[in-house]
Every structure is written in structure tokens, then in C-alpha cells.
Write a structure and sequence with these properties.
Layout (H helix, E strand, L loop, with lengths): L2 E6 L5 E11 L11 E7 L7 H17 L8 E11 L4 H16 L7 E8 L5 E3 L3 H6 L2 E8 L5 E8 L3 H31 L2
Helix pairs in contact: 1-2
Length: 196
């Protein structure tokens, strides 16, 4: 089975991603019409808990939205994300590491995606890529997974309280920031393959 690794490290948060497959699936997990995608999130220390399981589900849903699993029926793809350090914006870092691992593995995708985290401050201002301390001080934390093709939202999750208008403002800021992340992907791929 293919094994590819990608590291995503915006600021002081870093995540190592390993992708395995497509490989033969266990009969109990086999899907007749597409690849079965499994996402495992490992914390820096200790065993995965409820928070990791919740994030795994969000990551899996996002990846399933872009992976052309129908091209690999009855197979299994495993994406393992290991948190190396968490200084804030962890879910968006995991999303970016996952996308880079899928891209690096050469899996067929309908689009790329990126993660952007916004912190809504008590005064209503919006911070992108907040630190752990900024997250604690924020009124709400919003993380979006945004597709490259049309900046469509593939996944959104919110912690805290915000109005619909504030959520729309955060989304607009995240969609603008996505362009920078997609350019980073392009530059990374160009650097990697120019060395060959």
C-alpha cells in the first residue's frame, strides 16, 4: 500500500499526516461502490478522546466530499494525523495536512480544500489563525473547510455564540484567506517536483 506523509505547520501548530492505500479492505469495512475512508487523529500525548473522535468525523466528511472514491471500489484508504504541537487553530491545520497528504499521494480529487479558523473577539473583530490564548479569549471559534474550485464551504463548525451576520463575516474572511493557502499548496508542489 502507498504511504505518503505531509507536514502542516502554520505558526506553532504542527500536524504530521500519513496516508495509506488504496489497499484491500477488510470485508466488514468494504464498500461495494467506493473506497472506504478512515481518518484517525492522534493527540500529542495520551489516547484519543471525544474531541478527537468529533474532529475525525469532520475531517472524514470533508475528505469524502472531494476524494473520487468510486474509482477505487472495495478498497480502504487510511489517513492518520499525528498532532506534534498545538498552539491554536488545530482543526484547520489538520484539514490542511489532510489535503496535502491526499494531494501528495496522487489520489484523484474533485477539488482541493483548505481549513481556516476564525476567532470572533468580544468586541466583534475577527482574528484569522488564532493562537490558543486568542481562542480562549474569543466569544466564538469558527472553522471552515473551503473548496478550491468555487470557494464552496465543505464543512463548518462553531464553538461559542455568534449571530448569523457575524458568521457570514467570518466566512467571507475565511474565503479570502483560502486563496493564500491554495497558493501555498501550489508553491509546495512546484518546489517538490522541481527537485526531481
Amino acid at each position: 500500500p502507498r504511504r505518503d506523509r505531509a507536514v502542516c505547520a502554520p505558526g506553532d501548530t504542527s500536524v504530521l499526516a500519513g496516508l495509506y492505500g488504496p489497499a484491500e479492505a477488510k470485508i466488514s469495512k468494504e464498500l461495494p461502490d467506493r473506497a472506504a475512508l478512515e481518518v484517525l487523529l492522534r493527540p500529542k500525548v495520551g489516547l484519543p478522546g471525544v474531541l478527537e473522535r468529533s474532529r475525525e468525523q469532520l475531517l472524514r466528511q470533508t475528505c469524502e466530499a472531494v476524494v473520487l472514491g468510486v474509482l477505487h471500489p472495495r478498497t480502504a484508504i487510511s489517513l492518520v494525523l499525528q498532532v506534534l504541537s498545538d498552539a491554536g487553530s488545530l482543526l484547520s491545520c489538520c484539514l490542511n495536512a489532510a489535503c496535502m497528504a491526499l494531494l501528495d499521494a496522487g489520489l484523484p480529487l474533485t477539488a482541493l480544500f483548505c481549513g481556516v479558523t476564525c476567532a470572533l473577539q468580544p468586541d466583534g473583530s475577527i482574528l484569522l489563525d488564532p493562537t490558543a490564548r486568542q481562542e480562549q479569549e474569543a466569544r466564538a471559534i469558527l472553522t471552515f473547510a473551503i473548496a478550491s474550485s468555487d470557494r464552496k464551504v465543505l464543512m463548518a463548525t462553531t464553538k461559542g455564540s455568534c449571530s448569523v451576520e457575524e458568521m457570514q463575516q467570518c466566512l467571507a474572511a475565511a474565503q479570502r484567506a483560502a486563496g493564500t493557502i491554495f497558493q501555498f499548496y501550489r508553491d509546495s508542489v512546484r518546489r517538490r517536483y522541481s527537485k526531481c
